[in-house]
Each structure stands twice: as C-alpha cells, then as structure tokens.
Design brief:
By secondary structure, this protein is an all-alpha fold. Helix content is 74%, strand content 0%. It is built from 13 helices and no strands. The chain starts with a helix and ends in an 8-residue tail after the last helix.
C-alpha cells in the first residue's frame, strides 16, 4: 500500500506541475505503481477541466474553450508538448536516423517544432470550442486526459527503446504488460457506467498501434519524448473522433 501511495505521488509529480513537496523513493515498485496511476492522474486533470467547463457554461464557447485549454496546458506544464516539437523538428529535417536523434537531443526549438506546437494547440482549441458549443455531455472531457495517458503507458511498455539509456529506458526496466492492463482499471470502472467509453478505448488502442509502428519505422525505437507526444497525440485523436461523431453521426450522440 505504501508503494502504491508513493506511486500516485510520483505520477502526480511527473505528469503535472502541482507542487508536491514530498521526496518519493525512485524504486522499481514505485515506478510500477506510478505508471499504473498515469490514467488516474489523467482523470484528476479531466475532472478539473470538466469543472472549468461547467463553471463557464454561460460564457461564450470560444472563451470557455480557451480557458479549458489554458488550464489543461498549465496543469501539465507543457511537459508533453516538448516531445511533439522535438519529433517535428527531427522529421522535418529529412535527415537519416542518426541525425534525427541528434536533432531530438538539441535543446533549441526549430521552425518545424514551433509550427507543430501552434497547429496542435489551435486544433485542440477549435475542437474544444465545437464540442462545448454542441453542449456535449462533459464525461468526454473527463476521459480525454486519462485515455491519453494510458496511450503513453501502452507505448512505453510495449515498444522497445531506441537506446539503452535515458528516462524511458529506466522506466521500462520495471514494467511489463501487466502494468498496461492495471493502468486501464480506473477507466474500465467508469466504462461500466458509460459503455460508450469502450469505443474510445478501442480507438486509442488503434492509435497506439499506429504510433508504435511509425516510431519503430522512423526512429528504430522510442524515447521519453515520444511517450509525451503520444499523450498529446492521443488526446487530439480523441477530440477529432468525438467532434466527427457529434458533427456527422446520424444517430443520437454518445451518452445522450
């Protein structure tokens, strides 16, 4: 139980900018429990976002969307956005794999990275705007960060690292497929109340498999940046699918 509590604290320290002035042991057990708690932290973030959206129901949808997006980025401290920018710079260079890895390690952000950041945030903001304007039930906002972080867990555990060093590799030494399944438990429990979440889980699984294939093909493996990029990409993937459903479905929207 102690390791489980330390794991939750470690996950909060790692995935958010919420100040937690507690020294958490960095051990295989705490790392395992931290990874299992990634979606739980996502649910906490999603809950706060849903509260912001609920409290701004009488505010114009563009303003609500910007407020939700601002809180979303602030809570994570933009941690995962860095991975998106690094990958965009590496792929935009059109260089061989070895050079791509050098670019990934460069602390400077290039033009491709900045473009990727702008377009990612713009798409997220516009899709949030649309879904809030549709007055879609806010359970989707609760689940997005949780499923995005589960996608990161799945990629981290199920995809080999390109190099036997770095933070992602050190995490992998403590993890197994069992941790991917256990990380899904809080999401499955909520899915019992809202079966439509099962469809979201399946679409995220497809996204993880696609990203896994791309990272192996383009980089011969993953690193921590790619895990963060998968979290951001998974959230955007779900936003696009949810918007498509509400925009084009000819039957009643999910959850209504």
């Amino acid at each position: 139980m102690k390791n489980a509590l330390f794991g939750v604290l470690l996950a909060l320290q790692f995935l958010t900018r919420i100040p937690i002035p507690i020294s958490v042991p960095w051990t295989p057990d705490t790392r395992r429990w931290a990874v299992r708690a990634f979606p739980l932290v996502g649910l906490m973030i999603g809950g706060l976002l849903a509260l912001v959206a609920l409290g701004m129901q009488n505010v114009p949808a563009p303003v609500s969307a910007l407020a939700v997006l601002s809180v979303w980025v602030t809570l994570s401290g933009g941690l995962h956005l860095d991975g998106i920018m690094d990958i965009a710079d590496a792929l935009g260079s059109n260089q061989p794999i070895a050079r791509r890895w050098e670019i990934m390690k460069d602390p400077q952000i290039g033009s491709f990275g900045m473009l990727a950041l702008v377009f990612l945030l713009a798409w997220k903001g516009v899709l949030l705007w649309a879904l809030l304007a549709y007055q879609a039930p806010l359970w989707w906002l609760l689940m997005l960060p949780a499923l995005g972080r589960w996608a990161g867990v799945a990629l981290l555990v199920l995809t080999p690292c390109a190099q036997q060093k770095g933070l992602a590799w050190s995490w992998q030494q403590s993890l197994s497929g069992q941790d991917v399944a256990l990380a899904l438990v809080p999401i499955v429990l909520i899915a019992l109340l809202a079966p439509a979440i099962v469809l979201m889980m399946l679409t995220v699984t497809v996204f993880v498999l696609l990203i896994r294939w791309l990272m192996l093909r383009l980089f011969n493996g993953i690193n921590g940046d790619m895990v963060g990029a998968t979290i951001e990409g998974g959230e955007l993937w779900l936003l696009i699918l949810l918007w498509s459903w509400w925009q084009f479905a000819t039957v009643s929207p999910l959850g209504i």
